[in-house]
């Protein structure tokens, strides 16, 4: 048994309390929940009587939760959110076997998504849900079973499975390319930067034994917006080789400086250490290991 029933308010009461806290009035909560204002008041009163604690302070303008209730409603809101997400997963895949995966936009769409058909063929019992996140997050507060991570093993509280090493190339529009293989010319070129990789160009220049203090240039949050800027001659960018292979083949982009590709990190599958591994995640990990070892 999770807990005695007297400590478990009804979902309708919890929804009323959460809405009053967020909206500040019984009338607004009633409108959102399609109830009457008196029904909201009764739900709150019932919860107060059940728990034996005052939850709401009333004045002539707004309803205010007591300090203790404000702390309580944060936990209740998280529990309601998790329950709603679990219900959506159940409805989407009533036979079970859902994997919710956080992906990085470019890698997820251009490298992983085209390969997921093979996973679906091998594991038809698993439904994969994809959502994008750009930075590490707390698995305890997000609805994900696992995530794709780039860089180093610097995500706390997770286990890692290396997927692949990423290599980047300096690329630009053909008209911007200078007739030299000296990487020094890029110090004078307009450089484009990704905000999640603020030191990428410094590391690239360091690999070529060049100091590059105080680099400036346009800033982007995703490769998907950076690539059109490069193609339109706005500057030189460091882009993953898998992402620009087609553009290089078609001549839309060119390598700005010939030489070996530089790696700035690797892609990993990560999952929380403090959570039991569900069968869909275990199947996905095995598929990655076997298919892309």
Automatic annotation (TrEMBL):
Residues 9-66 form the HTH lysR-type domain. The keyword Transcription regulation applies. PROSITE patterns: HTH_LYSR (PS50931). Pfam families: HTH_1, LysR_substrate. InterPro entries: LysR-type_TF_proteobact-type, LysR_HTH_N, LysR_subst-bd, WH-like_DNA-bd_sf, WH_DNA-bd_sf. The keyword Chaperone does not apply. Belongs to the LysR transcriptional regulatory family. Keywords: DNA-binding, Transcription, Transcription regulation. It comes from Ruegeria aquimaris. This is LysR substrate-binding domain-containing protein.
């Amino acid at each position: 048994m999770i807990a005695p029933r007297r400590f478990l308010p009804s979902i309708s009461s919890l929804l009323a309390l959460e809405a009053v806290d967020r909206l500040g009035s019984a009338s607004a909560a009633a409108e959102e929940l399609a109830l009457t204002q008196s029904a909201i008041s009764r739900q709150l009163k019932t919860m107060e009587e059940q728990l034996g604690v005052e939850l709401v302070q009333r004045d002539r303008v707004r309803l205010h939760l007591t300090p203790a209730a404000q702390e309580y409603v944060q936990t209740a809101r998280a529990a309601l959110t998790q329950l709603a997400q679990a219900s959506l997963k159940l409805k989407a895949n009533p036979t079970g076997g859902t994997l919710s995966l956080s992906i990085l936009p470019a890698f997820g769409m251009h490298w992983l998504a085209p390969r997921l058909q093979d996973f679906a063929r091998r594991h038809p019992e698993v439904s994969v849900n994809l959502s994008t996140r750009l930075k590490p997050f707390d698995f305890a507060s997000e609805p994900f079973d696992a995530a794709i991570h780039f860089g180093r093993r610097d995500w706390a509280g997770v286990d890692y499975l290396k997927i692949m090493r990423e290599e980047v190339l300096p690329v630009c529009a053909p008209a911007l390319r200078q007739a030299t293989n000296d990487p020094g010319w890029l110090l004078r070129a307009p450089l484009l930067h990704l905000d999640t990789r603020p030191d990428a160009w410094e590391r690239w220049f360091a690999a070529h034994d060049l100091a590059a203090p105080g680099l400036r240039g346009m800033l982007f949050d995703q490769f998907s917006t950076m690539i059109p800027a490069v193609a339109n001659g706005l500057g030189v960018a460091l882009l993953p080789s898998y992402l620009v292979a087609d553009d290089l083949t078609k001549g839309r982009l060119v390598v700005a400086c010939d030489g070996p590709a530089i790696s700035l990190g690797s892609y990993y599958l990560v999952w929380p250490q403090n959570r039991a591994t569900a069968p869909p995640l275990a199947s996905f990990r095995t598929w990655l290991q076997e298919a892309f070892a």
